[in-house]
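User: Can you help me understand a structure? I only have the sequence.
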Amino acid sequence: MSTFRDVWKKFQAFLKFNPSLIQNIVNDRYESGNAFLIVITSLTSIYTALFITTRFSNFFDIVFYGILDGAFAWIISSLGMWFILSRVFKENLDINSVSTMTGYAHGIVAGISFVILLQSYLNLSARIIEILILSIFLWLFYTISRSLEIGFFVEKRNSRIAASVFIVILIWTSGPLKIFF
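Assistant: Let's start by predicting it. Here is the structure, written out as tokens:
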């Protein structure tokens, strides 16, 4: 059983595209729990930043719904990406491995919480906020496509299309991420 510190170190190494670690994450069936922990942590960080900067009357309902909705959006997006890769591009991938890889990449979404905190303390313009959030999603796109190439040996074109499908479905189905688009 991994501690949160171990999971965080794996997440940081995942962002550095360590090929042996990505292969271990993809091949280990028990890493999906760690990926779920990263997804919940990234969604919780967004709501923590919102809690610090704004006040809601029914905050706990919003947070519970948002985290649950965000987790389901991650699963639905992973299923969509797996469907594109397995049915359209005829790749032989395990759905558990795909969801684990996208769960590790989903931790990048926690960067939105830093944008929220910067906005509240520095009063950034709307254009700067849009650029920062778009750069977070471009980083997510690059991370997913690159880890598909390393972990599953998928062609570059196919991995980019699959990463695009993941992000479109994630934004389309996720209530917390619709706030920012």
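Now, to help you interpret it: The chain has nine helices and no strands. Residues 28-178 form one domain. Let me know which part you'd like to focus on.
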